Amino acid sequence: MTVTNFEHLETDNINVWFGQRHVLKDVSLVFPNNEVTALIGPSGCGKSTFIRTLNRMHELIPSAGLGGRVLLDGQDIYAEGVDPVDVRLKIGMVFQKPNPFPTMSIKENVISGLKLSGRKLTNAEELIETSLRRASMWNEVKDRLDDAALSLSGGQQQRLCIARGLAMSPDVMLMDEPCSALDPGSTRRIEETILELKENMTIVIVTHNMQQAQRVADRTAFFLAEEGEPGRVVEFGTTEQVFRNPVDNRTNDYVNGHFG
User: Fold this and answer.
1) At 134, is the secondary structure helix, strand, or coil?
2) Which H, E and C letters describe 136-172, residue by residue?
3) For 96-118, how does the pLDDT look when each residue is reduced to its tens digit (9 = 90+)?
4) CATH architecture of 9-104+168-255
């Protein structure tokens, strides 16, 4: 079965285990199209684990188990017959640490996902330029496309990874702390890119930077794991509401830096 006709992404009572350890409990969230949703919370509360369930990266861990559903336009991406490769083409991911292919050039990196997935590649030069433009780095690299990807700065490498994901024409882009290893200038460029990209897709970002969540996110979900308990969503709402008028006192304490 092919996942098509994207409207939005949502989860229905997601539970995650690693072996016998219950790490996420009953997470139900909706991620509308053309919006950025930030996942915030202390380390160890399950944010990165959760974001990996959204494109079936979670199931690559041998001890991992999952309950509940992840729905893309109403279709469960974990249902029998759904190809996980097809899911990951529609729901791309950018990781905390830039991971360009070190033996490939800049331009080869952009189209590497298409080649590895066996998709037909037509008009490669146009796709490379379009993807790099969307990742806000075409003007920086247009005269050095044959250079090694590792010749780029850390921030440029991260934007190259975004361009690589964009070349796949995803409907959703997942970002797991994409700016945590970057300097303020590179972080600003990534945030500008995120705000531009949301005009054509849904973006979900894990971040420990409260200011970043407020700058880029339309909605925010606050995750928390009480001692000895699995992580869960304590509060979910518009970013303005979560930060300025939180319903739960634990949310208020976290966003104001009282713990975490």
Assistant:
1) helix
2) CCHHHHCCCCCCEHHHCCHHHHHHHHHHHHHCCCCCE
3) 999 999 999 999 999 998 887 77
4) 3-Layer(aba) Sandwich (3.40)
